[in-house]
Amino acid sequence: MTSAMDLVATEVRARRTSLRLTQRDLADMAGVSERFVRFVERGKPSVQLDSLLAVLDTLGLELRIADRASQAERSLSGQDRAGSAAP
């Protein structure tokens, strides 16, 4: 299963590359460290949200939150249990 940070990493790397920016260029433009950009592009799960948003904004990307069934809701409905029927 691909994590949210893996998806962010892929998008950030692809956009940075398409804009022909180095990690250093992006870091300077976003006001973050080059190390932080490397962490984002590796999908590190614990990055500072404000710094991540600065990187995304610099690249013309945005983070969106959308409704979906939570793990708790899936468990309660039986969808998360293999071979189990809903109550």
Specify Rg, calculated over alpha carbons. Answer: 17 Å
Quickly count the helices.
5
User: Strand-and-helix sequence, N→C?
Assistant: HHHHH
Kindly state the number of beta strands.
0
Structure at a glance:
With 87 residues, the chain is mainly alpha-helical. The chain is 56% helix and 0% strand. The chain is built from five helices and no strands.
Structure description:
There is one protein chain. The protein has 87 residues and is mainly α. The protein has helices spanning 4-18, 23-30, 34-42, 49-58, 71-77. The chain is elongated. Helix 2 (23-30) crosses helix 3 and helix 2 (23-30) packs across helix 4 (49-58).
Characteristic terms for this protein:
87 residues, mainly alpha, 5 helices, 0% strand
List the SSEs and their pairings:
Elements: H1 4-18, H2 23-30, H3 34-42, H4 49-58, H5 71-77
Helix pairs in contact: 2-3, 2-4
